[in-house]
Amino acid sequence: MSVLEARAVTKRFGGLTAVKDVDLVVNEGEILGLIGPNGAGKTTFFNCLTGMETPTAGDVTYKGAPLPKRPDLITKAGVARTFQNIRLFNNMTALENVIVGRHTRTKAGVFAAVGRGPRYHREERESEQTARDLLTFVGLGRVGDELAKSLPYGDQRRLEIARALATDPGLLLLDEPTAGMNPNETAAAIDLVKGVQARGIAVVLIEHDMRFVFGLCDRVAVLVQGQKLLEGSPSEVQSDDRVIAAYLGKPTEAETAGDKQ
Amino acid sequence: MDVFFQQLVNAIVLGATYGLVALGYTMVYGIVQLINFAHGEIYMLGGFGALTTYLALPSGTPAGISLPLMLVGGIAVSVTAAVIMERFAYRPLRSAPRLAPLITAIGVSVFLQELVRNFYPHARSARNFPQLVNPDYQIRLGSNVQISAPQLLTVTVALVGMVTLSTFVRRSRTGRAMQATAQDPDTARLMGIDTDRIIVTAFVLGAALAALAGVSSGLQFGQVDFHMGFITGVKAFTAAVLGGIGNISGAVLGGFILGLVEVMATQYAPDPFSGGAWKDAWSFVVLIIVLVFRPTGLLGERVAARA
Amino acid sequence: MTSQTIPEARVRSAPDLGVLLTGAGALLLVGSALLPWAGYAGFPGKMTLSGYPGGARLYVLLLALPALALLRPLPGRAAALRAAANVELAVVALTVYFVAYAGGGFVNVGGGVYPAMIGAILYLVGSRRLPTSEAVAEGVALPDASWRFPVESLVVAGTAGLALWLFVIGLGMPSSSIASGSDLTLGPLSINDVANSGQFLAYVITIAGVALVAGRLGLLKSLTIMTGRHPKLFVAAGFIAAAAFPFTQNGSGESLSIAARIGVFAAAAVGLNIVVGLAGLLDLGYIAFFGVGAYFGALVSGSVTSVTGVHLPFALTIVLGGLVSGIFGLLLGAPTLRLRGDYLAIVTLGFGEIFRITVNNLDGSAGPSLTNGPNGVSNIPDLALGSFNFGANHTLFGIDLSFQSNYYWLELLLLAFVMTSFLRLSESRIGRAWVAIREDELAAAATGINTTRLKLLAFALGATLAGAAGTVNAHVVKVAAPDSFTFIESATLLAAIILGGMGTVPGALLGATVLYLLPEKLRFLHDLRLLVFGIALVLIMRFRPEGLVASKRRAREFHDHETDPAAEAVA
Description:
The complex is a heterotrimer of chains A (261), B (307) and C (571).
Chain A: E1 2-13, E2 16-27, E3 31-35, H1 42-50, E4 57-62, E5 65-66, H2 71-77, E6 79-81, H3 94-101, H4 110-115, H5 118-138, H6 153-165, E7 171-175, H7 183-198, E8 202-206, H8 210-216, E9 219-224, E10 227-232, H9 234-238, H10 241-248, H11 253-256
Parallel strand pairs in A: 3-8, 3-9, 6-7, 7-8
Antiparallel strand pairs in A: 1-2, 1-4, 4-5, 9-10
Helix pairs in contact in A: 3-5, 3-6, 5-6
Chain B: H1 2-32, H2 39-56, H3 63-90, H4 99-119, E1 127-128, E2 138-140, E3 146-148, H5 149-171, H6 173-183, H7 185-190, H8 195-221, E4 223-224, H9 228-243, H10 248-268, H11 279-293
Antiparallel strand pairs in B: 1-4, 2-3
Chain C: H1 5-13, H2 17-33, H3 56-64, H4 77-103, H5 113-128, H6 148-172, H7 191-216, H8 219-229, H9 231-244, H10 254-278, H11 286-299, H12 314-336, H13 341-361, E1 384-385, E2 388-389, E3 394-396, E4 399-401, H14 404-426, H15 429-439, H16 441-446, H17 451-477, H18 487-500, H19 505-521, H20 529-543, H21 552-561, H22 564-570
Antiparallel strand pairs in C: 1-2, 3-4
Helix pairs in contact in C: 2-3, 2-5, 3-4, 3-7, 4-5, 4-7, 6-9, 10-14, 10-17, 10-18, 10-19, 11-12, 11-13, 11-17, 12-17, 14-17, 15-17, 18-19, 18-20
């Protein structure tokens, strides 16, 4: 059963084709790695899935329904993401950052906020409880009152994941979740992603740390120069000559087949 | 039809002034993404600088000598003010949140107006500006269409200023460095461009052009006023947005279009919304309409994405 | 923080030069406060009397008191004394200048001036030489004991009362011999005007100085912790104190009418704070929304100068005025809010100008007849709720109350409503979404926030509150005219929240008070008012962009570092 199906997604910037005809299926509950050399279009592909960029062509469905266009509606539909260069709400506390993630799952409007009836208080309590639980889940239970900007780098990455989880996603897109982490933090990140999977959330992650990818992912897709080179189990991908060639920069079949990049 | 053509002439003259001032907004915005709110006051200071120069000259100096000197004087005052303003008010805030420099700009604008109002002799109300170019000297363009000498001077000065600027930006080393900085300040710095100097250059060029506008409007209307920069400044910014902010030809085009709209609306808007009382309102209506339908301006904006 | 014991040891072994100089300076200052400062009568504060610290001498005395800290090495002592000495020098210099100016020359100053000047300099020099490696003062949290609640409540309520008391004193200070409120150039100023301005300026600077010293000693942080624990009590105490203000006026209405105008100005500032402080949208035409409300209120007030002839009940007027203004906000915001932020600034500025031009022109000759043009809609009748006439004096609990107290209370209610809305919104789902958008719009969208819709909401809500405030104000000042709604008014409101501290209610209140009261009280500055205003904007942005009252998010930052060593240092 698939969660997300992307068909022939293409993104052109002027003359440059950053993503070309990429098909990708994400199955329920799986961890899918998206790898490829720098500039292969991985982040652009993520941006197309999350409404940050409008794809030039192609369509994406989430649980059978076409994905909306706007980022907030996509998040509401159930696709959450983190960013390659962490984007937290710096001057809010860690807890507040996560509570903001509850936005689409809560209702209180201006009148409820000013009037503060019992329903409002119940909703606030629930949001806060969910947020605290999520902070504990990612291992930040003790720093809820710290400002996001004052957290160490690794904690900021985990906070971003907690914020994304607060939106109750069915699919989580992680853009380089271990970038800048030391080996200990990376090991903790493996456990965290597995924990997310255990909650029944499918994960797609962009990553350059191959040990991390091949140790964690159920399947791996390789993106080279905007096109999907291949897709398969970690062992299949690891042993494929084309992947090695792509990383080392040797001409590949795809290129000799006439790709104008 | 004569009325229409006469108004067309007036529109071009007005548009030339807006265009000159708009260039300063557009250059500075293109490079540092700052709405230099005080740029209108730089225009005003140009007028007062020229007036001061005139008063300092012995009476009876022929116009052929005093006029160029007044232009130089006006430019000197405007440029000095702009450089000081950039150095002490804006530069320290370059990495501050976006609201900070904009609020500073409002402060500088109020300060400069009040400085002139309080400390320039007799500047609390409009001061007479020497009518060195006789406004009664008219050139006939049609049976009932004419352009007065100060008007012609305004258009000429504006065109010379615009062409010079455009040549400078496209041909000179500094000009190309300006374009590079506007594209991507960080990369420009890595390529060895002194971005501080480039930013100052943008302020200086903008101030010089605004001073030209200030002097020619003094000649045209026979007076300068401490708050003449406010409305002109906002309209010039509108012109810059209209043409596409950051875009030099856009600012000129925007200026002429805004001048056209203002003059024609004053003449032809349905009663009772025609006439001078409503002309400023029309300019702002145009601004809002442009931003709604074409927020990047007519010729497209050229602004570095700020990380 | 770590080396706090070292200077303590040094101070004990041999009092150093800094301590001696500071102490000597403080003693001279105390002595000078008991000597006459003026050689002529007429300067406020009985400055010719000796043995009595009146007028500005009281401030001099007050600012010398922190020197008592020399007796014990408190954390933050050196910093506090440096601040006290700076402010002391300013107050002494200012007062001497004004005494001399108003007296016609330096020869006319009294004998107390000389020790004061020497003392202030010694104080300054000495405080600079104090050992600086002392601990930074941290806020103290009281231990969790049975007496904590009553003590804290008393402190919290006392603070609210004190703040109001200081405000009332400032308000009650004589400002000028000429009727206030006139915006004309006043010509040569009387000695009274100068002297009163000097006295008031010294008062304001002293309050700021005492607050600064308290901050350096960690007292403000302690206070923040306490008020943070009893926010409702703090607000209630403040409100009650404010509501009691008319009873102190002996039936006079002058201060009340100023206070009422500050109230409405503050309400508008708090409303603007939603737009700018929370959602981060720069609105340079906010006064126009206020104006929409004011004109609406005026047109349906039943005034003889209103062309509509309609007279709606006031409660309905407020609601409708807010709604009409909110609709303008929607119409303006909907197309522009998806644009880059600084375009909004210029569009709102444009809207402000369109509004002013329009109401100026709708006089029947340049446009349809609606607003009476430059004259505005005037003679707005007094409000009446049932049989209660707002325009009549009343007696309550045997105390005479001028009719201005009715309007003052009305403004107070409005302010309370706006403040409550702001506080509740800022701590709600909506407020968090606004702050998130301000912090990082893209991340906010990725977190599920409809950024366009929420920005529009903030913008329209700000407009609605401004409109409601405008209807009230029209009834207080009895006129709605175009020249009250110029760009400079919008800029002043913006400056109020920036000066006070963006995103905070106390900041908006403080900023509004200072910006309204200073020009009212400083007649000698009258012509230079805007000049000073412009310089102040530039300087604030340069040196203290977070404003006088840093937002709670910053306070929380301090709070996080408040750990045990601090408490020990004080204990």
